[in-house]
Design goal:
CATH architecture: Up-down Bundle
CATH class: Mainly Alpha
Oligomer: single chain
Strand order of the largest sheet: 1-4-5
Radius of gyration: 21 Å
Strand content: 5-15%
Number of domains: 1
Length: 267
Amino acid sequence: MVFPVGDDNSDRRTFPFVTIALLAANVFVFAVLQGMGSNEAFTMAYVQVPREILTGQDIVTEPSQKTVHTPQGDIQITDPGLQETPVPPWMTLLTAIFMHGSLMHLFGNMWFLWIFGDNIEDDMGHVKYLLFYLATGIIASLTFVFLNSTGEASLTPCLGASGAISGVLGAYLVLHPKRRVSVILLRMMVDVPGYVAVGIWFLFQLVSGFLDQGGGGGVAYSAHIAGFVAGMVLAKPMSSAAVRDETDPLIVLRRPTLVDRLEQRQR
């Protein structure tokens, strides 16, 4: 796994107002409204629950002890129970992407947003970037809903900005595949192209999702993957025409020219 520490922002043209506002909003929600994770009543009221989204009905459950299956073995956890939701259930698709399960969950998401978000905001402009962020987050959340639509899994709460930030990473791969990113790799600081830094992260999501198909690891890898793919698809349509023209393609598809054929014959 690589850990990014920064990227080349020498050509950034605008100040990342929206990225900073999103950072502040996520920190405020966790620190103040969620009480640094201690206010379970608030968290379990505004968290996203698949069955609530699909039925449109608010669900309240009692606290209980549950057994979670993980690759390291079974563990017992306390389920605080779902609380009454003061807003229509569909709105939790938005509220949930501004909440986090722990301080490390928050830190990891905000770190990636800080490093990669400003470039995408610069590409799209402030308003379209905000819409892009919310759209990829909702797409990621809906993917989790439909993959957990039946049985006990439909009562599994989901929260976090990871889906939206995965969308930012997907856009970064499309729009900045060759941008220099400084990462910590094998305890060394190295500079790699964007497609390496983001590509290794995405590969980790794929492998982890395959190994955690039971969902016992507590991470919604399916939402990460869906957000990432949505970000790749929406990246160019939501960017300015100038950015689309300047983007370095990862793969160039074209018909071979006469020069190409001659070079092949010489080989």
